[in-house]
Structures are given as C-alpha cells and as structure tokens.
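Session log. Operator J.P. requested a structure for one protein chain; no other inputs attached. Running the standard single-chain path with token output.
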Amino acid sequence: MIILGKGPLQNFIKNLSIKYKDLIEFHNYIHYDIMPLYYSACDVVISPLLSISFVKDNIPTKLLEGMAMEKIILGSDVPGIKGIITHNKNGIIFKSESKVDLIKKIYYIVENFENLNDLRKQARKLMIEKYSWIKMRFLLQKVYDYVTSCVN
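Structure written below.
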C-alpha cells in the first residue's frame, strides 16, 4: 500500500499501520508530473478533509483526478465533497471527524471491492459530464463574461 500526502491523520495512520510497516509506504510529496503513475496503480482515492472552515467547501483536485481515472472515491462528509459524491452511487462518504467511520469504510471497500465497479463508472461519468476541463472552461467563460459586463 502506498499512502500519499500529509495531513492531520498522518500520525494516526502511521501508528495504526506499524505492524504492517513492510507493506506500506508513506510519501509526503509527489511531483505532479508523476501523479498519473500513482493514480493508475491505485484502487482507491481517499480525500479525508476535516470540517474546518477554510477547507470544508473545497473540491479537492485529487478527488476529481481519481474520478477521471475511474477509481473508488472515499471522501469525508464536508460540503465540498458531498456536493460531488453521492454515497454508494459514485463514491463512499465517511464522517469527517470519525477515524472509526473511515476505518469501517476502508474495510467495506476491501470486503466488497469486486462489487464496486458500477460506483467507479458512475464517478467517471459524472467527472466527464460535469467537471471535465471542457465543461469548466465554459463555466469560467460565463463567470468572466458576467464579471466583465458588470464592470463596463
């Protein structure tokens, strides 16, 4: 298992996985250029945002990238993630402040991995239909046009 990123759960996860230290690698930072290699090798993308004001409404890029790569998405129940992920339809949601719920959802994914293909496909479909760069370009153009029309 490879765990990428650094955050408030890092020490908890490292302590939890001590007995499996030979099976788990931790990397704090991975250059963006090689991220596609990690996405293609992984099965699950976890976005454990906490419910704090300055991040709770964010839409994590890794979430969208994982959806584009048709990975299982496991995200916390903060507004930015819940605005995209519908539990058991295109991803799995866990309680953001609950380490126990996160662990339960990871076990659920491991136990039901073969039955989650539709979930992955729905995540990719949503990404393409709503969040692709082409869709975002049109949205940004509308925002730009609106803002510039207000200035003139």
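Operator note: The beta strands are 2-4, 25-27, 44-47, 72-76, 92-94.
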